[in-house]
Write a structure and sequence with these properties.
With 239 residues, the protein is an alpha/beta fold. It is 34% helix and 28% strand. It is built from eight helices and eight strands; from the N terminus they run αβαββααβααββββαα. InterPro entries: KH_dom-like_a/b, KH_dom_type_2, KH_sf_prok-type, Ribosomal_S3_C_sf, Ribosomal_uS3, Ribosomal_uS3_bac-typ, Ribosomal_uS3_C. Residues 39-111 form the KH type-2 domain.
Length: 239
């Protein structure tokens, strides 16, 4: 019998990279996992929905244990960086208070937010929290994604939709979505929308065609050493 699984987990190490990329001694693994979770959770809650697409934390060097590099993928550079790096430096200070380690933040622009499942899910959740009609919201973001060039998209909403007494699930699929084809570029995200009628679950699947050998080479270069070497000292907090 077939079982459901995350499209992202299926493609890890094959066509995608981990959000946390590091090796550690056995006794340090739980500490680093907890630290990464706290950093990622804090940053995602620090900004409004639809701001942060992905948070990457590589610890590929020994010095990264005390000097943490954080890569933020966002379509809103101005919101994250601010004028003269004020907003970014403020975030560095807040994360430092949380974990008491030196932080260096790099901001990477997301050029096509209409193709990123996490951003679509966050934007839908934000609209639902503002009491927008769920069918109109689904239709709008599906049209935006298809116009941006995706091959297929699936949006599933679950809960007390429009304040209904009985919770239900409504799913819309447009285009192709070959979840069983490993070389397919399938992006997936889940976001909980907290409304006055309760929590609504928002799930989004996006298919952006198939991977090519060129894409495979780019995946291995997700974290650029050049970006790390060119980091500015002002982004770092000293103890």
């Amino acid at each position: 019998m077939g079982q459901k699984s995350s499209p992202i987990i299926l493609r890890l190490s094959l066509l995608r990279n981990w959000s946390s990329n590091w090796y550690a001694e056995d006794k340090k693994v739980p500490l680093l996992i907890n630290e990464d979770y706290r950093i990622r959770n804090f940053i995602n809650n620090y900004y409004p929905l639809g701001t942060i697409a992905r948070v990457e934390i590589p610890r590929l060097k020994k010095e990264n244990e005390e000097n943490i590099e954080i890569f933020l993928h966002t379509p809103k550079i101005g919101v994250v960086v601010g004028s003269d790096n004020k907003e970014k430096n403020k975030l560095v200070q807040e994360v430092y208070k949380l974990i008491k380690k030196n932080i260096n933040i790099h901001v990477i622009e997301v050029k096509n937010p209409e193709k990123v499942a996490s951003l679509i899910a966050q934007n839908i959740a934000a609209q639902l929290q503002q009491r927008a009609f769920f069918r109109a919201v689904k239709k709008m973001y599906i049209q935006k994604a298809l116009k941006a060039g995706v091959k297929g998209i699936k949006i599933s909403l679950k809960g007390r939709l429009s304040g209904a007494e009985i919770a239900r699930t409504e799913t819309t699929i447009k285009g192709i979505l070959p979840l069983g084809t490993f070389r397919s570029k399938i992006d997936y995200a889940y976001v909980a929308a907290k409304t006055i009628h309760g929590v609504l679950g928002v799930k989004v699947w996006v298919c952006d065609g198939n991977y090519s050998p060129k894409d495979d080479r780019e995946i291995s270069k997700t974290i650029s050493r050049e970006n790390i070497s060119n980091s500015k000292p002002e982004n770092q907090v000293n103890k």
